Amino acid sequence: MLQKLTKPSTNKVLYAYYFLMLLFYFGYIILLNYRLNKSEFWSTKSTNNILTQEDVETIIRLGRWTNSFELMFIILFVLMSIIYFVKNRKDRKDLVVVKHYLFGNTFLFIGIIALSYILVRITSLPIGNVLEPLYLPIYIFLGLLGYMLWGLKKSRLGK
Predict the structure, then answer these.
(1) Does residue 2 belong to any structural domain of this protein?
(2) 48 in a domain, yes or no?
(3) Which of 62, 79, 85, 88 could form a disulfide with 94 if both were Cys (CB 3.0 to 4.6 A apart)?
(4) Residue 5 above 80 pLDDT?
(5) pLDDT-derived band of residue 100, with 50, 70 and 90 as boundaries?
């Protein structure tokens, strides 16, 4: 099984992972922006601000879709983290694979944060909502990074 995670196939898996992460993130952003624009429309729809049952159902449905994309983003990150750290934690040769995963996620998160600040400037989305899918993955990522550094320090002291 571990031999299947050699460099060529690992790169393909990582590229597919990064593509899916970006796809889920942009899906979240598109739905969030659409929901915000619709809410502005609904708030100006009537003078009494009375929403119909259809409007309420649409609001709920858009909220569920937005939350689903955010959840898929987080679940994919957690699953890949488990795969890379659990499968490769004892085999020192595959530590390079974990390093590629960590460096790739670092650039992915920095890129998403940079894109988020650009999106906030060109849309009316609040920065907190735009960065929301990153909160949990970044905390987990920092924990995994600390765990890896602790493991490296421990292995060097043991030699």
Answers:
(1) no
(2) yes
(3) 88
(4) no
(5) confident
